[in-house]
Amino acid sequence: MTTAVSSPIYDELVDLLAEDVAPSRILNFQLSPSRQMKLDSLLDKNRSGTLTSEEAEELDAFAHFEHVVRMLKARALQAKQR
Hints:
mainly alpha
């Protein structure tokens, strides 16, 4: 699984989303229970070494998604503190 690194490619999208959504809404964002259960299952399989290649791609997508969410939350927190 690759991990997302901070990249300028995300900056414009993150800025746009952070500007147009209330900071509290971004800061309170969480995965739905069903998505969280799926992520937990993938993480368990990853730890036990039983991920299929398709599941590894799905876990990688979760990692990229989490990176964008963290960037959004950081921007929202900055906006809230202004």
